């Protein structure tokens, strides 16, 4: 049946013509206080030459290495610390020093020694800095450091004399500085110094005798747009840009005047706000402008701005609209410091995958982010089908119109969920929705509809249209969800139906049609939920291609999402279990899945580019397949994709070769041949050195910058150790030094670190250290490192090797960026570390540090000399009398050397074995295997601290080599040794049973096992010093463990701590992968895995099992009326209620959106209805308080019964159909599946 309708010109509720084009979005990543930033306002951002990122906040200076922050703050009594915590500006000079401007003084930081030197205003010293409130710092071409202060003028630092030259405003001197509050300083490429103050702009040149002034004149539009100058920047072409409180300015050097760029609320292509605080041109030539209200990208050629604001609906939008600073790091990432929003950063290179999404701040953006279909018409207009209507854009992405369903207008779109789009040979756009088949009459902009008529066999078989294809004969093929395939003759307007017939093997294999494709030979291919079909037009019959688990030479899945044909006539088929290459002539298959390089096995769409590569959208990224090299290259959201999850049917290839892919967060459009994703090779930097699990402090040599033998002088520096460039002139190679007690003052300890217990110190930071020397006493050494790669650092991998000790590279993840070694033998070693980024690109050259381990005194060269002299003398004097004694002594010495060498090798083996374990049972087994070789132990147990339940869990403990049952100990430090060890955090050593009363007020008998005499308890800590539990080794014998045994056990415990930390992290990741983050219910994947086991049990025991679906009624109203937080609240409350009322063996999971799924084992459908009715009634009766508002919630349930004749997927579909029958019946009910149920999408 066809219906028509017409809109009057006044009814334009569904669209609006707009002047601006939709712009690709920027994917901002965020770093906040929760990530370790000391305060939420990032006033200044700087990347130093090593690659560390420095962030100045209102409460300290932070150094970021991609994983953690090291925070520097003022320390009372330590003049080598910061002068104040409020940071206003940062600058690194050509000598490598980092200058820090605070609200209470200027500081110079030496990254090598990690010492600060303060420069403070002194009224009694005319050569001191003029003021302490520092707003701006810059360096000119001659190496002069210029400092701007608040209300105290401009200063130039003279490094030779450590003094300051002052410049200030003078009403009687027209060439003096214009304004004393200096907000910005920039030295340009022509030798000019530009100074911005609260009264205008100044220019200083060596060729002139004073300052040239540029003021704001309200009557002159070519003057500076504002009086207060906030920022100055010179771009790559030498153009000076000035940000004021009155807008952005470009200085014309020839005309000596300014071009203004002013905000205009009516024009979205203008500056977002007139208070300009930051200007930066990146390495690609793009000018970025930060204002008090928004972030801007300025196109210098078109002189148009793109605005970026906070978008509450987009977690990857800007975190704050108030911008302080913009800069670029070595990899091309743009960093944006904000007020109260922390740090934002993004990678401009990923904009090659142009990303378009809905933006509440942009009326030209998509109406909805969930994309189901895409099409490009003959005019070049782009049509985007979403779950919130149909969008039409012109070739410049200007929103032309948005089409939505209007119940009062029959000629409007029939449904807002647009599942299919195609343009026919006449130029008409055909639209498939759950409301029927339509085409758009381009003359009057009306939709003409074709709907299902139960009284007519020639009408559309169902209104739920999932796919549309026009064949070479001009016929249309329409796929539906639940009612099969239709062939439509546009001339006669008659629909011919093709549906599944269980009695006809030549009928369509399934009535849920996913995709339709016509190949070069005119053959129609149909993908369904029940396999692939080839249609023979002569016989009007289908040939089925079905999945056979027992036959590998079949398709890999019954669910077919997409079909395309390549230039060789081969079909490529996307399924929910991988991709298939199918030769239709000889019917050969080749399967591709994750093991072949695909990022995911759910293949939604496939497109072939002009170079014959295949682009495959999946449930976990977009992959490019090169058939010649049989190689997959995958891209993810971090590369600029809309998200990692795409949608079926949402892809398109234009005649120009441009590809379009849509998903759950908008769509991407790109030209594959123009992609140039750079693979930056990471460079590793050492970030810390630890001895005995403590960071080694830095104590510079006497006479070096920032320190002397007596501590720190009045100015905070010892001038005799600094040359004219401010760099340490010592030519001694940097090595670790053993600090003596007489040269350690409070000020000589590195900022934020205390002197190590070992007494070992470094002369300079480990990141600058090239070699160091250890004695035999430094027998537990560790080195931490980072790649300083800020894009998705958690996907980085590391590998390290100690040449001369390790035989191969040792792999380490981002959580274990530490190389630890114990009891290294004497000799020279080189520690090498390399890293890979998220693309798997490894460092070009590993970073290295040379380590020399000195021998113990008894193995030194002079010791051997003494041994030789004594030996020769003894032989000469007592050759007969003491011959046997000398031989015995030599044998003893050799045995000691062999024993120590064996111990070192044993520890290395133990470390490798323990670190490879993934479960506590494996860890206990490895510990027992190694400890039992040298210790007479009876019990070995590892207790894991459970903070929430206030107890310690002992799992897989061993007594006499036998595994003990699981048991728990309450944390009671007064009555239990394990509790004492964990709470006090110290070790326990008992020589006999009665010794325990020195620790406990009373002693309980053992929970399991016998009474132990010799007992050791050692606390286990993580790498971050978090208490994880304890390790206990016990024996029934008195005084069983020697001091050497205890030392050995302590070392083993350190390795056990690292392994246990990894095990706990591994278990947490497993739990997160199977749990919905919002409701804490099992997710879809967990439900499907758990259900397989319950189904197998039910089949073996011949018991009933029911499956049900639930959908919260009117859920969208909660989001629309109260916001998405209310929607999340409703989901959490409903999930909690369901879980509380169900039996323990019942499964309830979040299926997606507001839908839940249930599996009720050992429950027939009658019992299932009773259970669901109980849930429905309880939910209906209860009111939920949200922010003072009483919410009434109801849900609709659909239930079906799992019989041996159907599989899980089918019974879920049946429950889903019953659910939608329940909704059509009025909601808030329990609906049992009936064979006639066919109303669900």
Describe this entry's structure for a reader.
With 1241 residues, the protein is an alpha+beta fold. A hairpin with a 2-residue loop joins strand 78 and strand 79 (1155-1161). It is built from 10 helices and 83 strands. Among the domains are: 685-713 and 728-854, Immunoglobulins (Immunoglobulin-like), CATH 2.60.40; 861-896; 916-1071, GAF domain (Beta-Lactamase); 1084-1232, Alpha-Beta Plaits. The radius of gyration is 37 Å and the shape is globular. Strands 69, 70, 71, 72, 73, 74, 75 and 76 form an 8-stranded antiparallel beta sheet that branches. Residues 1-19 and 703-755 have low confidence and may be disordered.
In short:
It is built from ten helices and 83 strands.
Summarize the topology:
Layout (H helix, E strand, L loop, with lengths): L1 E2 L25 E3 L10 E6 L5 E5 L2 E5 L4 E4 L14 E6 L5 E5 L2 E6 L4 E5 L14 E6 L5 E5 L4 E5 L4 E5 L14 E6 L5 E5 L2 E5 L6 E4 L14 E6 L5 E5 L2 E6 L4 E5 L14 E6 L5 E5 L2 E6 L4 E5 L14 E6 L5 E5 L4 E4 L7 E3 L14 E6 L5 E5 L2 E5 L5 E5 L16 E4 L5 E5 L2 E6 L4 E5 L14 E6 L5 E5 L4 E5 L4 E5 L14 E6 L5 E5 L2 E6 L4 E5 L14 E6 L5 E5 L2 E6 L4 E5 L10 E6 L5 E5 L2 E6 L4 E5 L10 E8 L5 E5 L2 E5 L14 E7 L2 E2 L40 E3 L21 E3 L8 E4 L5 E7 L10 E7 L6 E3 L5 E5 L4 E10 L10 E7 L7 H18 L4 H33 L4 H15 L4 E8 L4 E4 L3 E2 L2 E2 L3 E4 L6 H8 L3 E3 L23 E8 L5 E9 ...
Parallel strand pairs: 62-68, 82-83
Antiparallel strand pairs: 1-38, 2-29, 3-4, 4-5, 5-6, 7-8, 8-9, 9-10, 11-12, 12-13, 13-14, 15-16, 16-17, 17-18, 19-20, 20-21, 21-22, 23-24, 24-25, 25-26, 27-28, 28-29, 30-57, 31-32, 32-33, 33-34, 35-36, 36-37, 37-38, 39-40, 40-41, 41-42, 43-44, 44-45, 45-46, 47-48, 48-49, 49-50, 51-52, 52-53, ...
Helix pairs in contact: 2-3, 2-5, 3-5, 7-8, 8-9
């Amino acid at each position: 049946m066809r219906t028509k309708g017409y809109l009057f010109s006044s009814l334009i509720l569904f669209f609006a013509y707009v002047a601006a084009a939709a712009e690709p979005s920027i994917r901002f990543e965020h770093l906040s206080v929760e990530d370790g930033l000391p305060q939420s306002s990032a006033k200044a951002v700087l990347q130093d030459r090593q690659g560390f990122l420095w962030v100045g906040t209102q409460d300290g200076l932070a150094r970021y290495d991609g994983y953690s922050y090291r925070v520097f703050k003022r320390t009372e009594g330590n003049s080598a610390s910061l002068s104040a915590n409020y940071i206003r500006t940062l600058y690194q000079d050509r000598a490598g020093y980092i200058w820090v401007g605070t609200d209470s003084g200027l500081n110079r930081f030496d990254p090598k020694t990690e010492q600060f030197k303060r420069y403070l205003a002194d009224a009694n010293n005319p050569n001191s800095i003029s003021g302490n409130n520092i707003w701006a710092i810059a360096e000119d071409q001659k190496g002069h450091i210029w400092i701007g202060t608040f209300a105290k003028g401009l200063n130039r630092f003279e490094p030779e004399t450590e003094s300051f030259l002052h410049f200030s405003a003078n009403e009687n001197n027209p060439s003096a500085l214009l304004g004393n509050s200096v907000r910005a300083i920039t030295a340009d490429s022509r030798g000019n110094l530009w100074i911005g103050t609260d009264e205008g702009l100044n220019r200083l040149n060596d060729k002139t005798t004073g300052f040239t002034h540029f003021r704001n004149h309200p009557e002159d539009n070519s003057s500076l747009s504002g009086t207060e100058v906030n920022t100055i920047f010179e771009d790559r072409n030498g153009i000076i840009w000035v940000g004021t409180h009155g807008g952005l300015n470009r200085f014309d050097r020839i005309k000596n005047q300014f071009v203004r760029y002013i905000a205009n609320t009516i024009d979205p292509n203008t500056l977002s706000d007139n208070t300009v605080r930051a200007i930066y041109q990146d390495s690609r030539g793009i000018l970025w402008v930060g204002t008090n209200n928004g972030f801007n990208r300025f196109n210098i050629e078109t002189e148009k701005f793109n605005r970026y604001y906070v978008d509450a609906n987009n977690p990857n939008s800007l975190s704050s609209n108030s911008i302080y600073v913009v800069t670029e790091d070595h990899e091309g990432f743009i960093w944006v410091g904000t007020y109260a929003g922390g740090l934002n950063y993004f990678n401009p290179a990923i904009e090659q995958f142009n990303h378009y999404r809905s933006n509440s701040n942009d009326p030209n953006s998509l109406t909805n982010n969930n994309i189901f279909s895409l099409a490009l018409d003959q005019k070049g207009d782009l049509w985007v089908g979403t779950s919130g209507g149909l969008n039409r854009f012109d070739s410049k992405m200007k929103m032309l119109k948005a089409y939505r369903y209007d119940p009062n207008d029959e000629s409007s779109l029939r449904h807002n969920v647009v599942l299919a789009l195609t343009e026919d040979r006449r130029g008409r756009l055909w639209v498939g929705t759950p409301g029927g088949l339509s085409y758009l009459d381009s003359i009057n902009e009306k939709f003409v509809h074709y709907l299902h008529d139960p009284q007519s066999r020639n009408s559309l078989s169902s209104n739920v249209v999932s796919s549309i294809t026009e064949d070479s004969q001009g016929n249309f093929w329409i796929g539906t969800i639940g009612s099969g395939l239709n062939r439509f003759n546009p001339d006669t307007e008659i629909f011919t139906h093709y549906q599944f017939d269980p009695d006809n093997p030549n009928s369509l294999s399934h009535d849920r049609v996913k995709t339709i494709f016509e190949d070069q030979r005119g053959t129609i291919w149909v993908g369904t939920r029940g396999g692939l079909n080839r249609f023979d037009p002569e016989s009007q019959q289908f040939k089925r291609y079905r999945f056979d688990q027992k036959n590998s030479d079949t398709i890999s899945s019954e669910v077919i999402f997409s079909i395309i044909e390549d230039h060789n006539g081969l079909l490529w088929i996307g399924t929910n279990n991988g991709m298939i290459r199918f030769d239709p002539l000889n019917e050969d298959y080749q399967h591709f899945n994750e093991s072949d390089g695909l990022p995911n096995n759910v293949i939604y769409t496939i497109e072939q580019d002009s170079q014959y590569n295949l682009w495959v959208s999946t449930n976990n990224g977009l992959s490019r397949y090169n058939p010649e090299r049989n190689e997959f290259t995958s891209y993810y959201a971090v590369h600029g994709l809309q998200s990692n999850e795409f949608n079926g049917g949402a892809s398109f290839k234009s005649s120009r070769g441009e590809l379009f892919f849509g998903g759950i967060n908008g769509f991407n459009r790109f030209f594959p041949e123009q992609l140039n994703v750079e693979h930056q090779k990471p460079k590793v930097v050492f970030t810390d050195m630890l001895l005995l699990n403590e960071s080694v402090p830095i104590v510079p040599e006497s006479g070096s910058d920032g320190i002397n033998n007596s501590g720190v002088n009045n100015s905070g520096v010892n001038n005799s150790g600094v040359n004219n460039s401010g760099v340490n002139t010592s030519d001694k190679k940097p090595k670790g030094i053993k600090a003596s007690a007489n040269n350690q003052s409070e000020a000589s300890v590195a900022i934020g670190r205390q002197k190590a217990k070992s007494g070992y110190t470094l002369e300079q930071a480990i990141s600058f250290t090239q070699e160091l020397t250890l004695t035999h006493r430094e027998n537990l050494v560790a080195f931490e490192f980072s790649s300083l790669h800020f894009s998705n650092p958690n996907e980085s991998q590391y590998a390290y090797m100690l040449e001369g000790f390790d035989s191969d590279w040792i792999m380490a993840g981002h959580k274990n960026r530490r190389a630890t070694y114990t009891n290294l033998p004497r000799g020279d070693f080189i520690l090498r570390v390399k890293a890979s980024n998220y693309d798997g690109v490894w460092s070009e050259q590993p970073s290295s540090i040379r380590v020399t381990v000195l021998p113990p005194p008894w193995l030194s060269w002079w010791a051997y000399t003494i041994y030789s002299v004594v030996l020769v003398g003894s032989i000469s004097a007592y050759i007969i009398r003491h011959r046997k004694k000398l031989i015995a002594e030599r044998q003893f010495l050799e045995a000691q050397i062999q024993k120590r060498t064996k111990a070192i090798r044993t520890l290395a083996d133990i470390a490798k074995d323990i670190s490879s374990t993934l479960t506590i049972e494996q860890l206990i087994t490895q510990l027992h295997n190694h400890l039992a070789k040298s210790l007479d132990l009876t019990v070995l147990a590892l207790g894991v601290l459970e903070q929430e339940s206030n107890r310690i869990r002992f799992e897989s403990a061993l007594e006499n080599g036998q595994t003990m049952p699981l048991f728990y100990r309450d944390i009671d430090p007064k009555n239990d040794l394990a509790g004492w060890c964990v709470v006090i955090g110290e070790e326990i050593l008992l020589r006999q049973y009665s010794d325990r009363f020195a620790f406990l007020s009373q002693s309980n008998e053992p929970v399991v096992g016998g009474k132990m005499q010799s007992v050791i308890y050692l606390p286990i800590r993580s790498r971050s010093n978090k208490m994880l539990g304890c390790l206990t080794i016990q024996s029934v014998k008195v005084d069983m463990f020697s001091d050497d045994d205890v030392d050995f056990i302590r070392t083993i415990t350190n390795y056990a701590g690292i392994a246990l930390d990894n095990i706990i992290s591994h278990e947490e990741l497993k739990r997160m992968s199977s749990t919905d983050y919002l409701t804490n219910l099992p997710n879809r994947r967990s439900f499907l895995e758990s259900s397989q086991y319950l189904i197998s049990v039910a089949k073996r025991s011949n018991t009933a099992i029911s499956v049900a679906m639930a959908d919260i009624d009117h859920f969208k109203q909660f989001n629309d009326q109260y916001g998405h937080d209310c929607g999340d609240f409703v989901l959490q409350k409903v999930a909690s209620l369901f879980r509380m009322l169900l039996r323990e063996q019942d499964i309830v999971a979040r299926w997606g959106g507001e839908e839940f799924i249930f599996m009720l084992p050992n429950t027939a459908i009658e019992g299932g209805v009773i259970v669901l009715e109980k849930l429905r009634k309880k939910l209906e009766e209860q009111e939920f308080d949200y922010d003072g508002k009483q919410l009434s919630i109801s849900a609709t349930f659909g239930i079906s019964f799992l019989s041996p004749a159907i599989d899980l997927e089918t019974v879920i579909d049946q429950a889903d159909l019953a659910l939608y029958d329940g909704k059509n019946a009025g909601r808030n009910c329990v609906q049992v599946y009936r064979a006639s149920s066919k109303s669900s999408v």
